[in-house]
């Protein structure tokens, strides 16, 4: 008889940075002979044109993946990026639980071997478990961040001030270097009585409920954190589910729009090897700087004397629809003076291709985890300028354990001055310390490739994940065979 096809259902969140790695997981599953269905909350509920566009591009580029949009709710609130975003987002997810349940039932649950949900959507695992299907999460940040998130609920349960009150006091978490409490994600730095704080803590408390967690990292990049995840002392009295480090998923899926090569790559072709500093601060508008900050960056780049490729977004105060007049934003004469050695690109550049270009010598980044992995797999040393989310946590590890980055410290005062921009660019491009950062970055590039090769840690972890899914599935089927014949 024909074997029933083995299906894995993916349930991504509404963030480009979470969706794209989930689709690379889809690609890996297809390669291993699984059928993949993606259940999507209607992208229209988030006021973010970019997300819908990425979904359409990916769907077009992966014809063998089945996309299913869960029917929209009658009274779905629009999601806007503001202080209450997380509360609204988690509320929206819980409203869609029944829709997800109906979708899984319509697929005849027994053909579904596993469901993998975005880590922020982990409440949906309760629906999955109710149907007796193995349920996993995909964590799209670092293993170290996962270690911290898993421990935060118990850290405060043992009494003590709120994270907010701790200020810059170093947090001592198991398996991690000390980190200022102020570097945690914004949501847990809210008042403990606030909805945002409570909703976020509830999310973190559900981490152990998954049958396993896939993490977009590779072991040798974060050996200390990975060891902590396997240690029973990580969360005393609670076992963490198995963690599979299956990364790095680095993709130019999101960059696949342009049919012709982006103009900045042609410009890079004309520059000497490893001579260009690339500045880019993430895919969403929250990565835009104030006018004052843009001017400080410009003066610093000007004085450094180094070549640069700078992706500039208009400050949040500007009309997003209007075309930005960069001349008016940047210091007088800056564009003419740096015309020969600098290129400014508005809004967007193909980041993966830029980082892998031989002319690129350093990367000034907001430390979003996808960007960090893109820098690592390109072997480029980095300058950290964290802005939001868990980026400050990533910075700690990039500068510390990984040793692949230096920090622009001015972000802690809310303004990186021109003098620091100049000094740090020189440090990474000219100094002995910069050479050491570059050497370590090159070593991690090799290590990332090794992890993904036959017999590499990430390949083995993925095989282990599939084996565990199969054994859970067999257990479910044999129980049905025993109980189902009555």
UniProtKB/TrEMBL annotation:
One of its GO terms (molecular function) is UDP-glucosyltransferase activity. The keyword Transit peptide does not apply. Its EC number is 2.4.1.-. Pfam families: UDPGT (PF00201). Keywords: Glycosyltransferase, Transferase. InterPro entries: UDP-glycosyltransf_plant, UDP_glucos_trans, UDP_glycos_trans_CS. SUPFAM superfamilies: UDP-Glycosyltransferase/glycogen phosphorylase. Belongs to the UDP-glycosyltransferase family. This is Glycosyltransferase.
């Amino acid at each position: 008889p024909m074997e029933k096809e083995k299906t894995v259902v993916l349930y991504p969140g509404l963030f480009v940075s979470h969706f794209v790695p989930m689709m690379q997981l889809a690609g890996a599953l297809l390669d291993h002979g699984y059928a993949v269905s993606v259940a999507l909350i209607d992208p229209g509920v988030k006021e973010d044109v970019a997300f819908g566009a990425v979904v359409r591009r990916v769907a077009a580029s992966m014809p063998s993946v089945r996309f299913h949009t869960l029917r929209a709710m009658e009274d779905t609130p629009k999601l806007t990026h503001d202080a209450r975003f997380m509360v609204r987002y988690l509320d929206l997810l819980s409203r869609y639980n029944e829709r997800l349940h109906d979708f899984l039932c319509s697929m005849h649950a027994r053909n579904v071997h596993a469901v993998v949900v975005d880590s922020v959507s982990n409440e949906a695992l309760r629906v999955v478990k109710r149907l007796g299907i193995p349920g996993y999460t995909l964590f799209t940040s670092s293993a170290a961040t996962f270690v911290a998130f898993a421990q935060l609920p118990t850290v405060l349960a043992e009494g003590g001030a709120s994270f907010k009150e701790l200020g810059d006091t170093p947090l001592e978490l198991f398996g991690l270097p000390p980190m200022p409490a102020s570097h945690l994600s914004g949501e847990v730095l809210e008042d403990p009585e606030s909805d945002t704080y409570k909703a976020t803590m509830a999310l973190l408390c559900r981490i152990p409920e998954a049958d396993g967690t896939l993490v977009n990292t590779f072991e040798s990049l974060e050996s200390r954190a990975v060891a902590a995840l396997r240690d029973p002392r990580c969360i005393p009295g609670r076992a963490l589910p198995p963690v599979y480090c299956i990364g790095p998923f680095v993709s130019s899926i999101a960059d696949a729009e342009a049919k012709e090569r982006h103009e900045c790559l042609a410009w890079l072709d004309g520059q000497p090897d490893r001579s260009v500093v690339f500045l880019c601060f993430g895919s969403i508008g929250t990565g835009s700087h104030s006018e004052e900050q843009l001017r400080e960056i410009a003066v610093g780049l000007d004085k450094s004397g180094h070549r640069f490729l700078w992706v500039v977004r208009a400050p949040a105060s500007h009309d997003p629809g209007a075309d930005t007049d960069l001349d008016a934003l940047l210091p007088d004469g800056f564009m003419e003076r740096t015309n020969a050695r600098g290129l400014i690109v508005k809004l967007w550049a193909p980041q993966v291709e830029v980082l892998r270009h031989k002319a690129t010598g350093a990367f000034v980044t907001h430390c979003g985890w996808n960007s960090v992995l893109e820098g690592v797999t390109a072997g480029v040393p980095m300058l950290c300028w964290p802005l939001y989310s868990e980026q400050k946590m990533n910075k700690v590890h990039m500068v510390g354990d990984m040793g692949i980055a230096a920090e622009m410290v001015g972000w802690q005062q809310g303004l990186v001055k021109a003098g620091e921009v100049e000094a740090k660019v020189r440090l990474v491009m000219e100094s002995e310390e910069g050479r050491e950062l570059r050497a370590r970055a090159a070593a991690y590039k090799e290590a990332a490739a090794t992890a993904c090769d036959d017999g590499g840690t990430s390949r083995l972890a993925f095989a282990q994940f599939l084996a565990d899914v199969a054994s859970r599935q067999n257990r479910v089927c044999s129980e049905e065979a025993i109980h189902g014949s009555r």
